[in-house]
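Researcher: Structure prediction, please.
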Amino acid sequence: MKKLILVLAVSLLAACGGGSGVEGAYIEPMIGSFTFKSNGKVDMIGMGTYDENKNKVVKEASYKAEGNKITIFVDGKELVLMRDNDGSLNLGNAKFLKQ
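Model: Predicted structure follows.
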């Protein structure tokens, strides 16, 4: 019986996605991109992530998703994105489209 309950619970989590639902890559071509991972980490490209030669670099940060609000914690600051009904992420004037 315990095995059956465990199998059902795992199946239910797999069917529901088991994560925040924000995982994946989002791009705004003029600004940069976010790639959200299921482990609570996000890779950021652009948005001030440049080296001394002005080349874009990948910066890893952590994030928390609560409903439609995604908060990225980077360099002691918080960056808040809102998930729109179409699945894109909104950062004020910029809209990042899921790839």
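Model: Residues 20-98 form a domain with the Lipocalin fold (CATH 2.40.128.280).
Researcher: Thanks, that helps.
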